[in-house]
Known about the structure:
By secondary structure, the chain is mainly alpha-helical. It has one domain (about 25-230). It is about 70% helix and about 5% strand. A two-stranded antiparallel sheet has the order 1-2. The protein is globular, with a radius of gyration of 19 Å. About 40% of the residues are buried. Keywords: Membrane, Transmembrane, Transmembrane helix. InterPro entries: HXXEE. This is HXXEE domain-containing protein.
Amino acid sequence: MEFESFSGIEYRMGNFWDYWLAGWIWISIAIAVGFLVYIGVKWTTWGWGDRLTAIFAIWIVPHVWEEWVWPGGFHYMYNTLSGSATPDRYPMSELTDMITNFGLLVVSVVVVAIWGARVPVMIAAMLFSGFEAVIHTASVYMSYGHFGTGRHVLAYDPGLATALLGYLPLCLGLILVLRRTTPRPTLRQWLIGAGMTLILLVIVFIPEQILKDPNSPYRFQDHGYYNQFITSE
């Protein structure tokens, strides 16, 4: 018996990862909705630091929805620009990207739930939000150049909208909060915040480096936004 994941790939029943890959986004949405309720309950008693870090913790969910589901296809651009001969699964596969994104969600929610808007947490959220905005903006131009201006009529990559409309405002908002924080953040707090950011970046890059496989069974079948370029080649 077989079933489909969000990317359209058919998986064999009975394998844990097959089940998980078919439903992890729904579980992520459920976590985000639950945490959003928590944010709503706490909103009037929180300052802007708490509010922004809490929103940051769950913003990965709409971001992943844009990258994976609608319009989807971020993997195809990423893998193609990496020079892959199998851009449907290498170096980024459904498995590696799931580990990255679900890991970011869980770690962010747990940290914010425990420590709230402590200065190092705000610094980490600010730096990582800025990283997402910069990376997606840069990838737009790399993608634009690779696929050609004749066909690539829109300067866009899957994830750009949620990066610029979500992560960028979060970054700028946290900069303002940190500038108004008294006493000003210390060097030690900046170093701790940078260390927390590094942990988030490890979650982003290390699973792929460890598990990348050109023969991975966890391939993306639907290339989303980039289908238009594939079919026209």
